Amino acid sequence: MNFTVNGRFLVIMENNIQKSLRWICTALFPILCIGMIWFLQNFTKLDTSIQYIDWQTAVKIGQDDSLTELDYSVPPETGERFRLETVIPANSKYGNLVFETAGMNLTVSIDEKAVWQSETLVPEGAAGQAQAIIPLPLNTECKLTVIGTVTDTTSIIFPPFPRFVPVDAEEIESYAYANYYSIPAGATAFISLMIAGLFLLGIARKNADWSLIPLFLASVGLTMQWITKGMGHHFLDDGLVDFLNRQEIGILLLVLLIVYLVMNRQRKFWKYFGVSAAVSAVTLAGAYMVSFFTNSRLSKYIGRLISDVTEFYDYSGLLYWITVWTVAVCAVISAYAVTRSIISQQMEAKTLRLRNELIMNSYHAIESKVTDSAAIRHEMKHKIIALDALYQKGDYEALGQLIGDIKQQNDHLAQTQFTENFTVNTILQDAAYRAAQSDIRFDVLVSVPPQLTVAESDLCELLMNMLDNALEATAEVTDGKRFVRFQIETKNGFLAVKCENSYSGKRRQDANGNYITTKNDAETHGFGLKLMSAVAVRYHSILDIFTSENQTFTVQTALKLPKK
Fold first, then answer.
1. What is the Cα–Cα distance from 326 to 276, expressed in whole angstroms?
2. Phi then psi dihedrals of residue 99, to 5 deg
């Protein structure tokens, strides 16, 4: 009793641990996704914080070089002169000072030494502004002086608003934008390769999934679209860039995605799709919160997508990412389905091998039984001689006892000789015995030579599975005739095998029309038909299965006999 209680406790503990692990893994996956998104988006982030400096001294220089306090609220006039001064502290972490110079003629000095002088004219293509980039001494306090003359009030920003920028700002900006476009493009490109790999794997396994074709085209289109939105015009033909950025291409990608979804409308697929949607929503929400509190780029980007929809009714950005997400999820589901199929086939092959071993063991047991019976029949000859001796002697008591033993033994050994082929005869004798035990009529028609060129293992797989299934199905019949009719013969270089049996009418078929087991434990049963089909294929044939209106189940095949 203690052993039983402890065993149940251990089983309960094991089940609880497994459930906990499933929940932990389910929660851990979105956390890992959030962490990965946060990590990668850091490489697309620019330091957009702008640190302006305040002018400590701002004066207007008159015609007579007189100095008056500069009034920022009064617009400057052409020809007006001014001087601005401030002290830059030594702890400044920035290496450059940047400000707009259009409309002014400026001279910039650091510690009373002129380091830069502006151009009077606005450079062509500068959008009305020209910039000054002034290198600053690092970790050294310095005095910044700007003396300027207003030359054009139409494009002027007055007073100048200098701001600090890092020394490698341009390089960082280039990398940030490159990563911003390359990371999503790389992700969709990887998805494209994964889908292509799954399709090619299916072809190699003779089970190609043609629905992957539209999914592959959609993923490739998304990759190209994102590239062209970024820096694609630097590397691709302008005509191709314009073509890929057309609105019709986005619609085409959605159509391809819809085609894939229609081709995968099974219930199991939509179950996985729903779970993926829930996990993705949690992941996105978590990533958004992390980005929001860290003031990073992702939250701002999501906010911009939402504002585009709510304020400008622009759905293009949102639809693009929905399409990307759908393609990614569908690719993952397809990969999961293929992986599960491979594992299932491997387990099935293992089970089939084990079943084959059991069949052969069963056959050898029957063979041994028949051999033992032959030995017993040989022994009977000697007992008959003993009977004659007892009769001649007149020992009727011993004679009667011996006759009783012989009668009992003879009832046990009463078996029909169906054919001179030992393997076929042994299997049929065992089937006949089981049929008699279950009150099943067993009719046999055999016409085979003593030796067949079919491998003994294949013959056992075919006949034993065929008869096992027939006897099991017939045993379930509660009303009407219970029969099994078996026929095997050689004709025109073929071994023709046919088995008919009555059944209860309960037969299940899969989506492809193949018969499957009606037993509750489907994972450990239902291999008989697969084994028989495999034997038929090995001998250039097929396994033909059909039912009739009178509740008769028929299995037949014709194996091409190999030459000796």
1. 10
2. -160, 160
C-alpha span between 99 and 503 (Å, rounded): 92
Residue type present at position 520: N
| Whole-angstrom distance, CA of residue 302 vs CA of residue 309 | 11
Q: Which residues of 106-134 are buried (b: 16+ CB within 10 A; e: fewer)?
A: bebbbeeeeebebeeebeeeeeeebebeb
Q: Are 212 and 197 in contact (CB under 8 A)?
A: no
Residue where the block lists tokens 């009714």: 313
Helix 456-475 to helix 528-538 angle, to the nearest 10 degrees?
A: 150
Angle between helices 247-263 and 212-229 (to 10 degrees): 150
Pick the CATH number of 51-165 from 1.20.930, 1.10.1740, 2.60.40, 2.60.120: 2.60.120
Neighbours of 559 (CB within 10 A): 23
Tokens (6 digits) for 485 = 């009719």
Domain 417-564 classification at class level: alpha beta
Paired residues of 59 in beta bridges: 69, 83
Domain boundaries, the chain: 51-165, 171-338, 417-564
Spatial contact of 100 and 131, defined as CB atoms under 8 Å apart: yes
Which of these, 514, 201, 527, 208, lies nearest to 349 by C-alpha position? Answer: 527
Q: Which two tokens stand for residue 190?
A: 């990887």
Q: For 411-551, where are the E strands, in sequence order? A: 441-447, 483-491, 494-502, 508-509, 515-516, 544-548
Distance (Å) of CA 353 to CA 37, 346, 516, 543: 46, 11, 19, 19
Same fold flag, 51-165 and 417-564: no
Tens of each residue's pLDDT in the chain, 564 residues: 444 444 445 556 666 777 777 677 667 766 776 677 667 766 776 665 567 778 888 888 888 888 888 887 788 888 888 898 988 877 655 677 787 777 788 888 888 888 888 764 444 544 444 677 777 777 778 888 888 888 887 777 778 878 777 666 666 667 777 777 777 777 788 888 888 888 888 888 777 888 888 888 888 888 887 778 767 777 777 787 777 777 777 778 888 888 888 888 777 777 878 787 887 778 778 777 877 777 766 677 777 777 766 776 655 566 677 777 788 888 888 888 777 777 767 666 665 565 556 456 555 655 655 555 555 555 555 556 665 565 566 655 665 665 566 555 555 444 578 888 888 888 888 888 888 888 899 999 999 999 999 888 788 888 988 998 999 999 988 877 899 999 999 999 999 999 999 988 765 554 444 554 444 444 333 567 888 888 898 898 999 998 887 789 999 999 999 887
